[in-house]
Design a protein that fits this description.
The model has no long low-confidence stretch (mean pLDDT 96). Helix 5 links the parallel strand 8 (133-134) and strand 9 (150-151). The protein contains six helices and eleven strands. By secondary structure, the chain is α/β, with parallel strands linked by helices. Strands 3-1-6-7-11-10 form a six-stranded mixed β-sheet, with helices on both faces. It has a three-stranded mixed β-sheet with strand order 2-4-5, with helices on one face. Strands 8-9 form a two-stranded parallel ribbon.
Length: 191
């Protein structure tokens, strides 16, 4: 069975962890959800971010998400692709040198990577966006630009593809985000 590595953490965006995880399992991938300093069976607390007309998103408590793999056991060479959830978790995950090493491996090997919302903060910290076209939650645009990326302003329900990289602004994009990731993974779904 083909495997996908899924980076998440405490106060990740609830939908951005739960929905892509379930969609990837639905099509047959073995998805290993991991967080630094946590093991298989540990939980990450999630947060629900919503767009309610305020100047930024609102935040409410989400579900507890049970990790199904231990971060310390990750061998990135065994995965077909990488998914990075958004929310607040990327703020601290990008400070972990092993997380950055893993991300760099996927880019160096030109393997598929999907990052959504604030997950792009991990990509900028890993220094892998220079010269790339990508999107993110609009508040992350300055980081993308400072890291040498070409920020694409797209609809909140859209996805942007640049080679092996799929990015989206936020969880309303799940249908296009996961569809485009599956395409670069070589998956064909027929009805």
């Amino acid at each position: 069975m083909k495997k996908v590595l899924f980076l998440t953490g405490d106060f990740t965006e609830d939908y951005e962890t739960m929905v892509p995880f379930q969609m990837l399992e639905m099509v047959g991938y073995e998805v290993h959800t991991v967080c630094p300093e946590k093991k298989k069976g540990d939980i990450v607390k999630t947060a629900i971010h919503d767009f309610e007309g305020d100047q930024t998103y609102s935040e409410k408590p989400g579900h507890n998400f049970v990790l199904n793999y231990s971060f310390d056991e990750v061998d990135e060479t065994t995965y077909e692709g990488l998914v990075i959830a958004g929310g607040r978790a990327p703020e601290y995950l990008r400070l972990n040198s092993r997380v950055l090493e893993i991300v760099k491996y996927f880019f160096n090997e030109n393997k598929p990577v999907a990052a959504i919302c604030h997950g792009i903060q991990i990509l900028t910290a890993a220094n892998v966006v220079k010269g790339r076209k990508l999107t993110a939650y609009p508040a992350v645009e300055p980081e993308v630009t400072l890291a040498g990326g070409d920020f694409q302003s797209i609809a909140v329900d859209g996805a942007f593809v640049d080679g092996n990289l799929v990015t989206s602004p936020a969880w309303p994009a799940h249908p296009s985000f996961v569809r485009e990731f599956l395409k670069i993974m070589g998956v064909t779904i027929t009805l």
